[in-house]
Amino acid sequence: xxRLAPPGSILGRLCSPLAALVLLAGPALAQPLPAAxxxxxxxxxxxxxxxTGLISHPSQANxxxxxxxxxxxxxxxxxxxxxxxxxxxxxxxxxxxxxxESLAVDPAEPNRLYLAVGTYSAGPAAILRSTDQGxxxxxxxxxxxxxxxxxGRFNGERLTVDPNQGQILFFGSRRDGLWRSADRGxxxxxxxxxxxxxxxxxxxxxxxxxxANQAQQPIGIVSVVFDPAGGRPGSPTPTLFVAVSSPGTNxxxxxxAGLSWQPLPHQPLGLRPNHMLLSPDRVLYFTYxxxxxxxxxxxxxxxxxxxxxxxxxxxxxxxxxxxxxPFGYGAxxxxxxxxxxxxxxxxxxxxxxxxxxxxxxxxxxxxxxxxNSRWDYSAAPYTRNLKPHWIGSLQINPLDSDRVCFVTxxxxxxxxxxxxxxxxxxxxxxxxxxxxEETVPLxxxxxxxxxxxxxxxxxxxxxxxxDLSASAAEGSFSGPRFSNTEGLALAAGNPQIIARTGTGRDxxxxxxxxxxxxxxxxxxxxxxxxxxxxxxxxLSANGRTIVWTPRRCAPYFTTDRGVTWTACAGLPTxxxxxxxxxxxxxxxxxxxxxxxxxxxxxxxxGFRPTGxxxxxxxxxxxxxxxxxxxxxxxxxxxxxxSRRDGLSHSTNAGVSFTKSDSIxxxxxxxxxxPAPARDFPALYxxxxxxxxxxxxxxxxxxxxxxxxxxxxxxxxxxxQVTGDPRVYGRVYFATGGRGIIYGDPASEKAILTSxxxxxxxxx
Length: 763
Known about the structure:
- The chain is 3% helix and 37% strand.
- It has 763 residues and is mainly beta.
- A 5-stranded antiparallel β-sheet has the order 1-50-49-48-47, with no helix packed on it. A 5-stranded mixed β-sheet has the order 27-31-30-29-28, with no helix packed on it.
- The radius of gyration is 28 Å and the shape is elongated.
């Protein structure tokens, strides 16, 4: 560690600090870091994100895969009645690969699985290949771009395997045309003969802005389907079809294994295809939407093409004009054992709910399923108030006509008695998300009393986790409801007092306070002047002073829970404030824009520089490149985490800092219960120590570190990290789409102490 100090000192004018702790400087670690084995689990919420696709293997019973837009891929394990995550081995540098654009199975070889991965088209993309159902993968980086979290992300499938010759795969890209592999995805060649369906100008525009307007964002090729009937095993299948997201000519066929292409005659025009599938009796089915979805779909249809009779038929169950509201169609599935039986679903039919339709005569007539459905919410009680929506994929089990699953914007619903509907009887749906966690945590807090974990969650407000192994029995936070909870803080001297900030829903004030450990909440009386809601919040050690920095605003403080607000003098817009955990009148602030550490000794009324400066964050105003944290239980003890400059420690209220020589990057830092025979909190770091990136623990104030995650448990992105003040070794961290992960030391003693089972979910 090396000491960093400003010219001169104002220590005498600040909160009285602890005596400075001097750590010896040492060279960066040259040897591999020691590792501490851990057990990793999800803090269970259940679902929570858009499952964009389901694929069943046609010949192996109950072999089902799910893809998600930001949370990786899963395999259903029937013996465990749980989803098994398949992409947790992707690390921080491969964070863009955690979104799954498309997936494919080999019909002839059940062990083979292929994933097309790439969350945003501005980032890297790859094809992942597995010969053991996703337990391990080989990777091929590819030049074509993907957008698993962009418009049209439920369309598909873009990736497919030749049913007669498994070495051949085709992939239809969003912006870069049609591609073929002849070596099971190890290498790829572009099919130059396929029509140019995306202009270079629009592709370049959209790839630089992943959330561009739907009309400006090219979706490209959405589905590739082989017709195995015209081929023979061991040879390339000559006939295949490609669907393009365009209201103009959008369906193409090749009869020479992809060498040449012609548009299908008499095809429907005016809408975009989003799904295409071929039934065993050689009928092609299509669902359409006016827009690619999922945010908007104002019109749609369902059509079929009988390949033997060469006839098109409109089989749309219901039209927006008849329902007096806009919507389209997304998912469609055919019963492989009874090809005249099919199911489809509306898309963005918001009032009162999206509908699932079933036909037993090839679409000539349809029966709505929802009016005669019963729903089991026990796996995730928070879903009780949610409507099934964004039904972008639906699978009738190819070996069991009674079983069907469909996706929604927050998980997977499954039914095991769907044929009862054909006899006019009720059918039962279960929220099947055991092991599938796709929330995006925005804030985490582990109090010293009450529930061990509180969370702020994107789209679902937040949760009090009284039992880490089960979804909250009462659903998400009570009281004022937010769409996102972005800020959480507690009063260090009275951890039952907790504040949170959020966005959206119908809340008039976007901050709330609890005095009973997040069991009950009350909105603050008002927001600061010019508030844009959400943002960061801090509570004084005694809970009497609240400092709130709403989005795009300067910090304000209140001592009467929002009845009146006063600007914090000396702080600019977006300055982030933290409370001293011991002295109620003392607060600290980080001004990223100016690169200054600031301090207040009068309850947040005024701040002044400590004299210590840091390099201003390059990404100021977008994502925090710098974090300032206060050590629990210690006065004036601060840590500065930097993505560029590593980790620094101050014991004198920010007047000077000691920089770690071994830590090169610090994304987040958290504090937990001290190790046995020690009195300083255990430190948990997401970052890079020497040449190793990962999650680390230090029991000796950062003098030495052990890596506690491993290469199979990286989760693509590690956000906020916090330890547990009551359980030594336990750490929680946020991910970018795999929910909340927590870990405990994998020793028998630690398992018994924490009350956990030694069995791990996942593989």
